[in-house]
Design goal:
This protein is of the alpha/beta class and 720 residues long. 46% of the residues lie in helices and 11% in strands. The two termini are 49 Å apart. Its EC number is 5.6.2.4.
């Protein structure tokens, strides 16, 4: 534990330190993958507490998983800020609802429905609508989406069409099931997890006295993974704040992969619009991955489009170099799985621990062939998203035995190290210093017990004076937070389930068109989310990264599949297809693609050479704080000319050129069309329409008659 407030700041890089010391007013932290965001925000809270600026009980840190909240609480304890509340949105809301329900509503709070699928199935039956297992899951997901986006049944069809959702049934049928489901809940006096947020919002809105009590308790808020908030969660956060601005949010729009649940990066991207005086800090130093992995990640996002892409962060690896990512094409899926298992076996034999290796895929149905291939290769594995660690029978039994041993150890006597006591207890239930041969249930049981032994060793190293009772308390807290210890096996997981995790070696498999992007990703926005999903997968790897795809599903099948479009321009021998950049190399130039559209690589500051990621800086082609060589007279002439053009076209001035683009032109003072085309915001059509006038103004000529021809500028040119 640091011995002072200043010691809390030791070891932070300049940007992390800027986060940690920004304790007043709204703060927005744009944190790329692997840049130490959790470290930055936990040190911020701890520094504020240790310096006496923040009272521990007045801080509420909110994140999205119980595991992340548990990890945050653990870090805060180690930093000397143990009284801070770190919870998920649902856990924080449920705690408040349980406390205030008797006062605000009266009586006991309704029972919480653990799983809504059965009630949705009953609602479908009452509506005389038969749902198979997949439809049942999907309709349940639609109901959850409706509730977090605050969409009532009557509005579902319109909302689904507007957002381009792939609906599992006729929208009218989904709306009927949704209505019946809500009625069944009311009849039985139960609420679901989304109701927890809805009801908390309702109580805080309708009862000013309750809202005031909550606000007097919590005065400072920190929200992690802010790109994943839903409209309902944002509304709850606003009610907690009550117009105050002591808020720190942390996120990365390029890691928004849960829009199907109602998550949206709009609140993160619009933060500075809501808080004009916000402190904004960008974390781009990647401590997780090698330069080779980071280069691929940057190249992948370099081809992205849309609002999130405009705010992408260019990561800079802080690690030593490693192997280049590998790209492998296989004839069929079993061959791909066998190839991955063979390489995993080689990694393990070379000293990489199985728990530091992951196989990631787009959908869970892809796991079966990899389970078989790893079993055949004698490689232990674990399925992420399967049975929870603390719910396994052997783990529950071990917990009971350790609890009994802790009571016995409380009697006076010679102290015995905690790990030694744990090993003694678990050896009677199948643990041994060496794993059993083969795989199967016996090996699975041993892996679970071995994970508890390793956890006791880590616990004792961190707290040498702790007792077995303290270790049992740690297990209870981890169980409540679902913060499972590491099981010594290769992780098999979907890309969605891999968010927030990292491994030494990652195998990204099944990277074919129709799988990634998935077939039902139709709109540009949906396809871009699929790209971000692959980006999340790439950035899980610290050192080894393997990407692969199969030309057919089964041996002997027609090999008609194509590698994912997201790999075009990145894998050897391929070229980018109609994207902004090839992802290879650097430089701030642009090249013309099909139809005259530009494909941009990374944009570099023309003053200091730094890679630019902020949209405004990209338009200026320099950092905001780099010296400007603005020709003010030219800028005023350009503004007057723009006003004339806007009147002639009958459109707002920014549809001609934005202020930032005019500033860039007045700073660069291009002498020909080639130089003008390099300025962000000068598209091909604008170059043709306005280029001659702009170049004439830059050369000092006076212009008379505006460009002829009114009408809406093309969408792709009006995007700025």
């Amino acid at each position: 534990m640091p011995d002072s407030a200043d010691a809390v700041l030791d070891g932070l890089d300049p940007e992390q330190r800027a986060v940690a010391t920004a304790l007043h007013g709204p703060v927005c932290v744009l944190a790329g993958a692997g840049t130490g965001k959790t470290r930055a925000i936990t040190h911020r809270i701890a520094y504020g507490v240790r310096a006496g600026i923040l009272q521990p009980a007045s801080v509420l840190a909110v994140t999205f998983t119980a595991r992340a909240a548990g990890e945050m609480r653990g870090r805060l304890r180690q930093l000397g800020a143990g009284g801070v509340q770190a919870r998920t949105f649902h856990a924080a809301a449920l705690r408040q609802l349980q406390y205030f329900w008797p006062r605000a509503v009266g009586g006991e709070i309704p029972r919480l429905l653990e799983r809504k699928v059965q009630l949705v199935a009953e609602a479908g039956a009452r509506c005389r609508i038969r749902l198979d297992r997949n439809e049942l899951r999907d309709v349940t997901g639609e109901i959850e989406w409706c509730k977090v986006t605050q969409t009532v049944p009557e509005e579902y069809a319109t909302a689904a069409a507007k957002t381009g959702r792939e609906v599992p049934r006729d929208p009218a049928e989904v709306a009927r099931i949704y209505t019946t489901y809500e009625q069944l809940k009311r009849d039985r006096g139960v609420i679901d997890f989304e109701d927890v947020l809805l009801l908390t919002v309702g109580v805080l809105q309708d009862r000013p006295d309750v809202a005031e009590t909550v606000r007097s308790q919590y005065q400072h808020f920190v929200v992690d993974e802010y790109q994943d908030v839903s409209p309902l969660q944002q509304r709850l956060l606003e009610l907690w704040l009550g117009g105050r601005d002591s808020l720190c949010v942390v996120g990365d729009a390029s890691q928004t992969i849960y829009s199907f649940t109602g998550a949206t990066p709009d609140f993160l991207l619009g933060f500075r619009g809501r808080y004009a005086d916000a402190t904004v800090v960008k974390l781009v130093r990647d401590y997780r991955s090698t330069p080779q992995v980071v280069a691929l990640a940057n190249g992948l996002l370099g081809q992205a489009r849309g609002q999130a892409a405009a705010h992408r962060l260019e990561l800079v690896s802080q690690r030593e170099g490693g192997p280049e990512p590998s790209y492998t094409e296989y004839s069929d899926e079993p061959a791909e799985a066998e190839g991955a298992a063979r390489r995993i076996r080689q990694l393990i034999d070379s000293g990489v621990r199985p728990s530091e290796i992951a196989v990631l895929y787009r959908i869970n149905a892809q796991s079966e062939v990899y389970e078989q291939a790893l079993a055949d290769a004698g490689v232990p594995y674990q399925l992420r998203g399967a049975e929870r660690f603390f719910e396994r029978p052997e783990v529950r039994e071990a917990g009971l035995l350790l609890r009994g041993a802790a009571r016995a150890a409380a009697e006076p006597g010679e102290p015995v190290p905690v790990p030694e006591q744990v090993r003694a207890v678990l050896s009677s239930r199948g643990w041994a210093s060496e794993p059993p041969a083969g795989s199967g249930a016996v090996r699975d049981r041993w892996e679970s017990l071995a994970a508890l032994v390793r956890l006791s060793e880590d616990f004792a190293a961190a707290r040498p004076d702790a007792t077995l009772g303290d270790f049992v308390a740690e297990l209870d807290e981890r169980a409540n937070a679902q913060h499972a210890p590491t099981v010594e096996g290769v992780t098999l997981a979907s890309l969605h389930a891999a968010k927030g995790l990292e491994w030494d070696a990652v195998f990204l498999v099944g990277l074919t068109e129709g799988t990634l992007p998935i077939t039902y990703a139709k709109t540009d926005e949906q396809v871009e989310e699929e790209r971000r999903l692959l980006y999340v997968g790439v950035t899980r790897a610290r050192f080894h990264l393997a990407l692969s795809w199969a030309l057919s599903r089964s041996p002997g099948g027609r090999g008609g599949r194509r590698p994912s479009r997201f790999l075009d321009g990145l894998r050897p021998g391929s070229t980018a297809r109609g994207a902004r950049g090839t992802g290879a190399g650097g430089g701030g130039g642009a090249e013309r693609g099909q139809g005259g559209r530009r494909r941009r690589g990374p944009v570099l500051c023309r003053v200091c050479g730094r890679t630019l990621s902020d949209a405004g800086e990209i338009k200026l082609m320099r950092c905001e704080d780099c010296p400007s060589d603005l020709d003010e007279a030219l800028y005023e002439r350009l503004r007057a000319w723009r006003m004339d053009q806007a009147k002639e076209l009958g459109q707002p001035a920014y549809c001609v050129f934005t202020d930032k683009t005019l500033l860039a032109i007045a700073e660069v003072r291009p002498s020909d069309a080639g130089e003008l085309s390099q300025i962000a915001g000068v598209g091909a059509r604008k170059l043709d329409k306005f280029g001659a006038d702009v170049l004439a103004l830059c050369s000092g000529e006076e212009l008379g008659i505006p460009v002829q021809g009114a009408g809406q500028l093309p969408d792709e040119e009006a995007e700025e």
